[in-house]
Amino acid sequence: CSLCGQYPAKERESPPEGILWLCASCKQKRTCSRWLRIHDSIANTIKESRPKVNEVKFPEQFEQFEKIGKESRIEGYMGYVVADGNRMGEKIKLHEVSSTADRYHDFSEKVKECTDEALVEAIIESVPKTFDKRDNSVFLPVLVLILGGDDMTLVTTAESALPLAAKFSQKFQQKTKEKGIPEISMSVGVVISKIAFPIFSYAKLGEELLKSAKRLSREMRKGGKEVGAIDFMVVTSPSTQSLEEVRKDSFYYEKKDTSERFWLTARPYTTTESDYDFNLEKMLNFTRQFKNSDFPRTRLKAMERYLRMGKGNSILEFCTMRLRLKETKETKETHYGLLNEFISTFKLHEQMPWRIEKDNAGEYFLTNFLDLVEIYEFVQGGKQ
Q: Given 9, 27, 252, 285, which residue has the most CB atoms within 10 angstroms?
């Protein structure tokens, strides 16, 4: 299948954007054609707020993402976003939903409304618009590929992907509460990579990230609260490894002499409010602040090296860097203060820059500074 990359293609389509081979599921979703109407809804909303706009344009060719890549701040990259409602099977079994055909139909229609409305708002708020004075048109670098009842897949600029995904998850959950149906949270997987990255590879990794986010949401549900979640990855080169293997190779190590274990990522993150410390909105806000304050990038990049040196050496290197920031009068209040705020928010002060966590194998050290480093170039802020 050209769209999901998961199932065998059964039918061929020849739209203006080129030949598509579709599985039965994607064919059904495109036949229902909400993905076409959603572009119209986005365009109409923009025209209402900007009367001078005559036309809103979207990328035309499915297999050629060059326009999106050129609009990205890091040219040649784009973001692939896949989202799905959490525990929909459980919601459908509720008496208030399935006791009658009318109730089930009403629930289904309201879920669709929540998805459409949340998506339109998230796209308009998150995706940069390019205005062309020649014909008073606006180009919006986003393309909705799949839009089902509570699931969605789209591509957009690299720096729009994470903010859009977070807002979509938040807005969808809020709208389910406003419309009087059982509250539903939304999980999201985001892949940021080069436009030349095969679409089926985007789809495969996106689904793995989505499943990872859903596991966190399911774990958070044990506390009695619906919580949206997101997992993400920046990919610079294709890999045949699974997400679990990549994470373990890139973000995990053990010190054989001390038996200490270290995780260099806190992913997945939550998208909605909860008691969980690692929230994507907080991470995005900090990333913008680091960029806007012109925090020395060399100091952030250096973390990739010394955070892999074990507890003692990494603590020494980090504290030395922090002390030097404090001694720099010009940026003491901004850079030093910002670093301390990050440490406090994510509770990394116990063994700075680490926090101690536990699993079935015992204690391990965790930090999320490399999450910030990974997305740094793909979050708007700083000198454009």
A: 27
Q: Which of 22, 186, 156 is nearest to 81 (CA)?
A: 156
* Mean pLDDT computed over every residue of the chain: 89
Residue 218 and residue 87 share a domain? yes
* 3-class DSSP state of 15: coil
User: Would 296 be classed as within a structural domain?
Assistant: yes
Q: What is the pTM of this model?
A: 0.88
Has residue 364 been placed in a domain? yes
SS3 44: helix
Whether the predicted pLDDT of 384 surpasses 50 = no
Q: Are residues 295 and 227 in the same domain?
A: no
Domain membership flag for residue 48: yes
Q: Considering its fold, how many domains does the chain have in total?
A: 3
Clarify whether residues 28 and 72 are in a common domain.
Answer: no
Q: Within this chain, do residues 168 and 72 fall inside the same structural domain, yes or no?
A: yes
Phi/psi class of residue 78: alpha, beta or left (left: φ > 0; alpha: ψ in -120 to 50)?
beta
CA-CA distance, 127 to 327, in Å (whole number)? 39
Query: Among 2, 142, 11, which Cα is nearest to 80's?
Result: 142
Give the residue with greater pLDDT, 61 vs 259: 259
pLDDT in tens, 20-51: 788 887 776 665 545 568 888 888 999 888 88
Give the side-chain half-sphere CA count within 13 A for 231.
Answer: 21
Contact 375, 231 (CB under 8 A): no
Strand residue runs (E) in 73-117: 77-85
Tokens coding 344:
């406090």
* pLDDT tens, residue by residue, 205-225: 999 999 999 999 999 998 889
CATH (domain of 216): 3.30.70.270
Helix (H) / strand (E) element for 20: namely strand 20-22
Tell which residue, 356, 251, 374, 268, has the closest CA to residue 307. Answer: 251
Q: Which segment, 2-11, 17-26, 126-135, 264-273, is predicted with the most confidence on average?
A: 264-273
Among 10-24, 184-198, 285-299, where is mean pLDDT lowest?
10-24
Residue 95 lies in domain: 33-239
Whether 187 and 42 share a structural domain: yes
Name the burial class of residue 32, with classes exposed (0-12), middle (13-18) and buried (19+) by CB atoms within 10 angstroms of its CB.
middle
